[in-house]
Amino acid sequence: MIKGVFETHINVSNYRESAVFYEKLLNIIPLYEDSNRKSKFYWVGRPGDSMLGIRENYPSPLIQRQHFAFKVDLEDISSAREYLSDLGIETTNFLGESSENLLVFPFMPAVSIYFNDPDCHSIEFLAMLEDPAKPELDIMTLQEWEELHGRG
Questions:
Q1: Is the peptide bond before 118 cis (omega within 30 degrees of 0)?
Q2: Which of 64, 73, 61, 54 has the alpha carbon at shortest distance from 112?
Q3: How far is Cα 135 from Cα 117, in angstroms, rounded to an integer?
Q4: In whole angstroms, how far apart are CA 132 and each of 44, 105, 110, 136, 145?
Q5: Parallel, antiparallel or unpaired: strands 51-56 and 7-12
Q6: Single pTM value for the model
Q7: Backbone dihedral angles phi then psi of residue 122, each to the nearest 5 degrees
């Protein structure tokens, strides 16, 4: 019955500042703004596929750090890292180290980079890998993963 996650909303301290941040990200398409409720909504990727909502001080003025991931293609991870860097946004890997050292989550398998929005919400760009999952393995570098599969 469930086909995927369609909508995510986050609480922000200043929705206009957050809007400026999110509108810099590629394929985040403004959909609707409700200035009375201090909220803004975006299509993520193709219109109608998924939506992100930001709302100031709702349900509370206390901002609790949240995490969510945007799906990207593997070949876009490096360019996304450079793009974010050009915007002055620092990226890391899962361990909080430089995103130059990409890590693979073998249980999925996937590779990703992390960064924060103005309220320190943890955002991830995640690319699924085409190889079979190896849940018995620990997190490893992308280079190690490639060598494991005879591509390194």
A1: no
A2: 73
A3: 30
A4: 27, 12, 10, 12, 11
A5: parallel
A6: 0.94
A7: -85, 120
Q: What are the CA-CA distances from residue 50 to residues 5, 39, 42, 44, 110 (Å)? A: 7, 17, 8, 5, 20
Task: Count how many Cα atoms sit within 13 Å of the Cα of residue 113 in the half-sphere of its side chain.
Answer: 24
Asked whether 115 and 59 are in contact (CB, 8 A), the reply is no
- Cα 6 off chain centre by: 15
What is the tens place of the pLDDT at every residue in 92-116?
A: 999 999 999 999 999 999 999 999 9
Cβ pair 129, 135 in contact under 8 A: no
CB 72 within 8 A of CB 125: yes
Tell me the residue type at 31.
L
Tokens 């690319």, located at residue: 127
Say how far apart CA 127 and CA 99 lie, in whole Å: 14
- Name the 3-class secondary structure at 145: helix
